[in-house]
Design a protein that fits this description.
Elements lengths: L10 H15 L1 H32 L1 H9 L4 H40 L13 H27 L19 H23 L4 H30 L7 H12 L1 H39 L4 E5 L10 H7 L4 E14 L2 E8 L12 E4 L8 E5 H7 L6 E6 L3 E11 L9 E4 H7 L7 E6 L5 H11 L6 E4 L1 H44 L1 H9 L4 H37 L13 H17 L1 H8 L3 H6 L2
Parallel strand pairs: 3-8, 5-7
Antiparallel strand pairs: 1-9, 1-10, 2-3, 2-6, 2-9, 4-7, 5-8, 6-7
Helix pairs in contact: 2-5, 2-9, 2-14, 4-5, 6-7, 6-16, 7-8, 7-9, 7-16, 8-16, 9-14, 9-16, 9-17, 14-16, 14-17, 14-18, 16-17, 16-18
Amino acid sequence: MLPAGLEAVTGATVVGEASKSVQSALGMFTKIFLGFAAVSLLVGSFIIWNTFSVLVAQRGREHALLRAIGAGRRQILASVLTEALVVGLVAAALGLGLGLAVAAGLRGLLGAVGMEMPSTALQLHPRTVLAAFAVGVLVTLVAALVPAWRATRIAPIAALREAAAPVKGIARARVVAGGLLLAGGVAGLARAISADSQTAAAGLGTLATFAGVLMLAPVAVRPLVRVLGAPISRSVTGGMGRLNAARSPRRTASTATALVIGLALVVAVTVVASSIKASVGDVLDRASKADLILKAGSQFAAGIPAGVADKLRALPEAGTVSEMRWGMARIDGTTAPVAAIDPATVDRVADLGVASGSVGALGADGILLSADIAKAKGLRVGSPLTVTFAQTGDHRLRVIGTFTDTTLIGTPYVVGLDTYNANFSDRLDIAVLVAAKDGVGTARIKQLATTALAEYPNVAISDAGDLKETQRKSVDQLLGMVYVMLLLAVVIALLGVVNTLALSVLERTRELGLLRAVGMTRRQVRSAVRWEAVLIAAVGAVLGLVLGLAFGAAFSRALASLGIVTVDVPIAQPVVCALVAALAGVVAAIAPARRAAKVDILRAVVAE
């Protein structure tokens, strides 16, 4: 019974479609959060790996005794992996519970800042529970696999040793492989930094560099500890902390690696964000000749009325007023945004970087393409191009020129206002650019425009400085959210330092007791453990700082196609991050240092 073009659906269908729409809109945020979760799991896996490595080393004599009385390698492997399984199950359960608590807390926080959430209860699906336990157990088992395999390699004769086995050196094959990976990664990063839009080189270079650093980290630990610990080596406790940090390069490297990941990401994001802010300023300075740029005051508004441009033209102080409009069209089977400009005035308010042809030649059948698109499609000035508009169908347009700067326009396809008006019913401007007459200052024309447009409160009037500041604030807001997520990974890494130091203190109980017996005070014991923690954190901070700066510069150049035209590498912020991470080692050492200072001298000395 309904007219053509209408359909009847059930309420359940509407609910399902609305749910899918919300899920689709939040898809990008979901991917971002899952990315941060993956980083945290990667950092956590290094901690698990390091913990089981230390535990296996401490139980070397125990495993050797089991082998001596008949236990097979499979049984040793099964015992370690079973322990990892239990740890993974318990951790997954705790993580699931904490996740629900955090979700409830976030809901309350969003409500406090005015973002009301639906009144329904928190949704806990069976797949979420299964995913939590699957990920928790899988990550723990994978991280513990190598230490478990090492436990099976302990010979039964090791049960007869009274002293701990000497620290193993670094295999030559590992050094060679790590050197090759590092060299290849540095070459990839250098290529990404030296040329624009080398996304593949930046990605592969980052992975290869990180893999190389990971393999060579035990080799670099002792030189780094020697250099970083030089200022504190004159004191007894500082020198002892320096020696302890360098005693087991593998352990120190694996502990520091977790911090390297988190800090490298923080620094890299800082570099990219700084480059975005610098690029916005450079783009406005280079591409915009306008004194004012008017846009809709709300991101949800479709545009601003065409009458705004007419009111501005009526101002005697306004020299040039040029509108820009946007619409969607299908070009070569792909839907893409198409910008519309006034060919008679746009050159006086904007610089598109025309490479061939002329903007003034835009007419009812002309189209301007970016140089990259024209090259990719094999088009040149005079070539025909079919564009399909939703309201008027197919139109055969002629390429009248190419341009190189899409940052101000925001799309590689540009038509004239006549073409736009003939094929779109919408008459809203996406932006209006205003250039004042000679002798009229920016502040003056802005004041006059504000007065003239008092009846249009939804129009935002900005000069170049306002736009730069708005973009900076937007980037800083996004950066703040990213920092919060990445700092969670740094906190997890610092927990790894705590864990390693606690196990190290347990391992050196007799040593600590002997030191106390020969006169070392509790304060000195605490100080030695703290210096050891600071040096471990400093190694991770230095490596993370260097890698983060390189990764950030490479990806800033690789994202040139998205408008990052300037690579800005800040020094102060990354250095502060590295110093804070190193100083956080002091906090990480509080509990292990107190435990070390409380070692019972007599029991420690007679302990076997």
